[in-house]
Amino acid sequence: MNIDLTQAALKFTPFHNRTSRACRTNSWYRWSGYTVVAEYSTTELEYTATRNGTSVMDLTPMYKYEIKGERAKEFINYFVTRDLSEMKDNTVAYVIWCNEAGKVVDDGTVFCLNQNEFKICCAVKMQTWLKDSAEGFDLDINDVTDDIAALSVQGPTSCSVLKNYGATDLESLKPFESKDFTIDGYSVLISRTGFTGDLGYELWTNPENAEKMWDSLMESGKHLKIRPMGMHALEMVRIEAGFIQTGTDFVSTEHALRPVRMRSPYEIGMGWLVHLNKKDYFIGKRALKAEKENGTTERVLVGLDIEGDKPAHGAVIYNKKKEDVGIVTAALWSPTLKRNIAIASLMRPYGTKIKDDIFVEIYHPEELEYKKIWATCKVVKRQFYSPERRNMVPAEVY
Length: 398
Prior knowledge:
alpha+beta; Gyrase A, domain 2; Elongation Factor Tu (Ef-tu), domain 3; 20 strands; single chain; six-stranded mixed sheet
């Protein structure tokens, strides 16, 4: 398929020739200026591949930034709320970063390639924020989004697929570690990371290797239930895993139109990533310390277990007095768990001290009408799904 990129309203990833052939539904999703597949065949089959075989998803549109320089590590530790002062080479860390008011700008992953070279992957365009924050650090900060082709390879047989692909001894790689491989004559960085809550890996390479890598993976997994996965199935598995998503479960400070829409890490369940005892100052530390000490956190992001089998998409949450106490940000009838689950933002003390006697108002479409459902729910751990194989070392091999 020959594509004239000069005529495209959105950019195509280096895998587009392969993904477009596999996409039987012609269902597409706009992601950071790229077009990626929303659904290849059926969302249910793609979801099932992730939970019972291997799924492959085009991860290229994720924003990727390269930070180089003698003070790169010092800057990263200043930029994020988590203490990364002891971060080692070839490791990955999940992080968030805030503005000086202690409100979340975005979350993402930091790759330590070496002590003077890091890579940040995130959902929101961040180059200006990075460069402004790095004033005085004398660093080279570059947007390398278009320079790296990336795939997410997830599921119980993912390690086996990648070993067939040529990633020798991959099963010994620990969660949040990365390793460079040379496969079929080209370089691939493989990290044990993902957005599915299952065993999985992410592959990073030069765009010129993209199609060859796709073909080799599909051939390596043909007997291991491999299937390409679109964005709709990804939404299902990330809800089961309890992972948050920018623009869905919280609004980045860069995109919020009103200050009241901004959230602190404590309001979105990310307080565990705020290390106030970090020796050096980090952006937002003063405000976050004051919030913690004064108990001024207003909201909390929680998991909900809801009665019935009708997903509570966008539902308003009420107490016994029918007072509005929150909203559902993401919802799903989980095929694996056989539960009606949701992620919700609640006004405290709901979600912290009060975890029962709350209700959701669901409007469920039935042909040309909406059926109003009043369902009880209770606050539960947001990580609904986390199989043992996710963190096993060595990883399972079939």
